[in-house]
Specification:
Layout lengths: L19 H18 L3 E2 L5 E3 H8 L4 H6 L1 E4 L6 E4 L4 H10 L8 E10 L11 E10 L4 H18 L5 E6 L3 H16 L7 H6 L16 H5 L10 H16 L5 E2 L11 E8 L8 E7 L3 H4 L7 E7 H10 L11 E4 L6 H13 L4 E3 L12 H10 L4 E4 L2 H5 L2 E6 L7 E5 L3 H4 L8
Length: 433
């Protein structure tokens, strides 16, 4: 009989295993706590959305829509569906569908996997994860600044350093229209320098050409007309408010007039937090204002602004900067010499867990060979990182008690505690949370 072929994960779609997964949980906990302090509320949207949502929302002539989306036809009804490549369009779709702005603006955040069909490399995967914050229904520049401060606060909370904030303004449609005409005229005079992608986008989406990563085009792009120079008084005032608030909070920033972001829905403020420590994948968080997306997706016109960060990149940068991420540990490890004591032991552990104590129970790994020696159990207790060992020996069981032995104070201090009075001593074990 032939050997069954081992199945493995799709390239660029990675398993996240313990203890690595604990770092993800730590980051997510930090985010949840910070979002609550800024009064942002969690939102969860489907992983699969109508393909039209992203074509309409992100722009038909974007790399994401043209090259990177995982799209397919639903076999049941022929509907065109797509695994979400980003979450903002889905959040807006849900806000519109459920008329969430009826009673005023909403501050929302999300976490979850996104999907893009591209070549996997460090910091760029086919299934990747984003955390994002969106403020919908608020037109003021102070909300742009608030979101930037929210991201900046997260870097401080988790200990990230040497992150540069780049700002730009994309103005309003009429300003972009004037810039577009000047940009096309400039690029038409330099057709010999344009690569195939740039030539294809010259008349459909010339602003995207400024976002090229082609080294041969950088000099051309750097000399191109700047959208910033076409901004009117209102757009400049909006941008000035953002800068003034950031300055008042001690947040350093630099103006990058070539910053356009990868989606077509942005207007006015756009920004990126970047690092030089992750090579070509140096953007760890980016976003901006998208005042016209809600109407594009079928809702009543309403302003909005938001950002998304790449979880893998943030964790990779924490590793690169050698920032410590706490390892999860148990408060206690239960040592059980005799399997006959298991009913009593497990009833005791349940009570301790309900009292907030984290307990790992020793279990046999080989059928029919008992619970293992006390020596081997103590080795596992020590390796678990737990502060205490709970010893359920026959003498303790006979007295209706458990011995609590310290594993971390150096002298192995131990004290016997009554099983009938768990509530009075459980708190002495609990150090987590």
């Amino acid at each position: 009989m032939s050997k069954t072929q081992k199945l493995v994960a799709i390239k660029g779609m990675n398993d996240i295993l313990p203890p690595e997964s604990a770092k993800w949980e730590w980051l997510e906990d930090k985010v949840r706590d910070l979002m609550a302090r800024f009064a942002y509320r969690n939102m969860r949207t489907p992983i699969v959305e109508p393909t039209a949502l992203f074509v309409r929302g992100l722009g038909e002539v974007t790399d994401i829509v043209e090259k990177e989306m995982y799209s397919f036809e639903d076999r049941l009804n022929g509907e065109q569906l797509t695994l979400r490549p980003e979450a903002t369009a889905g959040v807006v779709r849900a806000v519109v569908e459920h008329t969430m702005l009826y009673e005023g603006g909403k501050r929302l955040y999300y976490m979850g996997p996104m999907f893009r069909h591209e070549r996997p490399q460090r910091g760029r995967y086919r299934q990747f994860h984003q955390i994002g914050a969106e403020a919908l229904g608020f037109p003021g520049a102070e909300v742009d600044a608030e979101l930037i401060l929210l991201a900046h606060s997260l870097w401080q909370e988790i200990g990230l350093q040497n992150i540069e904030l780049q700002l730009n303004s994309l103005g309003q449609p009429e300003e972009r229209k004037a810039h577009r005409a000047a940009l096309i005229e400039y690029l038409e005079k330099n057709l010999d320098v344009l690569d195939e992608d740039a030539r294809r986008r010259l008349y459909s989406n010339p602003l995207r050409i400024l976002d090229t990563k082609n080294p041969a085009m950088q000099e051309l792009v750097n000399a191109a007309p700047r959208l910033f120079d076409f901004l009117g008084e209102a757009s400049l005032a909006h941008f000035e408010t953002v800068k003034t608030i950031l300055d008042a909070n001690g947040v350093k920033w630099t103006l990058n007039p070539r910053l356009v972001r990868g989606m077509d829905y942005y207007n006015l403020t756009v920004f990126e937090f970047i690092t030089t420590q992750l090579g070509s994948q140096g953007t760890i968080c980016g976003g901006g204002r998208y005042d016209y997306l809600i109407e594009q997706i079928g809702g009543k016109p309403a302003p909005a602004v938001g950002w998304a960060l790449g979880v893998e990149r943030v964790l990779e940068l924490l590793k690169e900067q050698e920032q410590p991420v706490p390892e999860p540990t148990s408060d206690a490890y239960a040592i059980i010499p005799d399997a006959q004591a298991l009913p009593t032991v497990m009833a005791t552990l349940q009570k301790l867990r309900m009292a907030g104590v984290t307990v790992q129970m020793h279990s046999a790994v080989t059928a029919g060979e008992g619970m293992g020696s006390m020596k081997s159990q103590f080795k596992k207790a020590d390796a678990s990182g737990a502060r205490f060992a709970l010893i359920f020996g026959p003498d303790e069981m006979a007295r209706g008690a458990v011995t609590v032995k310290s594993l971390r104070d150096g002298n192995g201090q131990q004290v016997e505690q009554p099983l009938a009075d768990i509530d009075t001593w459980a708190a002495t074990l609990h150090i987590t949370g």
